[in-house]
Amino acid sequence: MAELDRSRRPRRDRGGTPFPDLREPSPASAVSPVGALRILKIFCARHIGITTRGAYGEEARLDGPGPVGAPPVEPSRSEHPKDHPPMTHILIAGGGIAGLTAALSLHAAGFDRITVAEAARAIQPVGAGLNILPNAVRELDALGLFDALDREAVRTRELRYYHCGGGLISRERRGLDAGYRWPQLSVHRAHLQRTLADAVRDRLGADALVTGVRVAGLTTLPDGRARVRLEHRGGGAHGHTTLEPDVLIGADAIRSAVRAALSPDGGAPEWNGLLVWRGVSRMPAERVRPFMFVAGSDRQKAVVYPLSEPAAGTGEVLVNWALMRPADSIDDAVRGDWNRPVPPTRFLHHYEGWEFDGVSVPEVLRASDSAFEYPMVDIEPLERWSHGRTTLIGDAAHAMYPVGSNGATQSVVDARALAHALALHADPAEALRPYEAERRPAMTELQRANRQLGPEAVISLAHERAPGGFTDIDEVIPAHELAAVSAKYAATGAFDPATVNLGSPYDVPVHALH
């Protein structure tokens, strides 16, 4: 792989728009109720004897090339130089970061019969910012997505940790400045997901991504395949389809229906008693510093970082923020709900006076019109991810506390690792064993590390040892102890420079076993 160009790539002319419009989905992001079921019927037609109930309640038996009495239909197939078995149909439940990256990774590995079923009716620009660590940026670069992401991202070069009283605990170089061959990117979740979705439609065809369709249940057949019940609701229409794909990938987030079917006695989101608020603000560039910071303690925390370069004309930047503090109680119904809007005034008063090297947290919050509230939850590490030809990736497999920038990062790595394993093994069930053997123990360790605050443990240590603040951090936490916390976490997540700079271990040889 060629060395990454480390210069800042020029941004595209946005026609006078100071920021990308993250409020509206792209025109191709939604599928009509009838259209979603029609697309599913096309794929069903490739599986003999599958029954489909349509949007208006009619039932048709799909035999051979298409529905009885209808002209033959064929799914769109992407051309690819590699030769994989023509009958390998892969169904991905979930069109988030994990699912879309999996589709692109499988396509790059030579698979072309891939369906992504997303429960939402459109790929909506929801959420806030996130950080993609260099190990995941490396994998996205291998998929040819780096330039598109980099245009609307910030290359994070420094991370700082502060005591809640304002004292600086530590400064860490990040990305290229830390010696990585790839940068760390701070990017809006909507931009990342839209970039992935556009690439899926462009490379796999418009029919590869079906919205408004969710997994309603599944059973594992004797040959290891899953019989999957898919349901569509929306626009006044209701329909369902049963598919038996060759491989089923559960990428359907923390409330995974696939995980629930595979592990009915475990895997429910577990709340640690803390609430998280996220949002994005527009601020004058002079009121923002060019670094990411984490401040507070183990019971109250603020994370702030820029998401964009200064806009031409206004000089404003997008600023991401995430806050955490205890809650008295929470309804079970909203555990794992990442998109519950609340006004910033609900929690702003808890952060009055929080200022760190010129960045005022209250000022950042007042510059935002809205916020999203959700409980800090994860899932108990699973004893297995794979059953027959079905497996899990991303939050469906290992949802973890939002610590250390590893949520989206590890979802990307999961997707690449799974595609690599499937490409190198003729038997899908056999392929899932090395995938799980590599990823599950590492992610279990990372889940447990995040329960202990991961690298952010340093703000807790500083608060415990010097609750009233300090004048010299070396008297509170020696430099070697700070370095050890950071290095241990990087090694746990396999994003230390030495490992990342070796290059991607998931590039599939042109002449793979298939």
Shape: globular
Low-confidence blocks of residues: 6-34, 46-86, 510-514
Strand content: 25-35%
Tell me about the biggest sheet? 8 strands, mixed
Helix content: 25-40%
Intertermini distance: 23 Å
The multimeric state of the shown protein is single chain
What number is the mean pLDDT? 83
Descriptive notes:
- It contains 13 helices and 24 strands.
- The protein has an eight-stranded mixed β-sheet. Strands 3-2-1-14-13-12 form a six-stranded antiparallel β-sheet. It has a five-stranded parallel β-sheet with strand order 11-5-4-15-24, sandwiched between helices.
- Mean pLDDT is 83; it is low at 6-34, 46-86 and 510-514.
- Strand 1 (50-53) and strand 2 (59-63) form a beta hairpin.
- By secondary structure, the chain is an alpha+beta fold.
What keyword list fits this structure?
514 residues; 13 helices; 24 strands; eight-stranded mixed sheet; alpha+beta
Short description:
The chain is an alpha+beta fold and 514 residues long.
Give the topology:
Elements: H1 33-44, E1 50-53, E2 59-63, E3 66-67, E4 90-93, H2 97-108, E5 114-118, E6 129-132, H3 134-142, H4 146-150, E7 153-156, E8 158-163, E9 168-173, E10 184-188, H5 189-204, E11 209-211, E12 213-220, E13 226-234, E14 237-243, E15 247-250, H6 257-262, E16 270-284, E17 292-296, E18 301-306, E19 316-326, E20 340-342, E21 355-356, E22 359-360, H7 361-366, E23 371-378, E24 390-392, H8 395-398, H9 407-424, H10 428-451, H11 457-465, H12 479-492, H13 497-500
Parallel strand pairs: 4-5, 4-15, 5-11, 8-17, 15-24
Antiparallel strand pairs: 1-2, 1-14, 2-3, 6-10, 7-10, 8-9, 12-13, 13-14, 16-19, 16-23, 17-18, 18-19, 20-23, 21-22
Helix pairs in contact: 2-5, 2-9, 3-9, 9-10
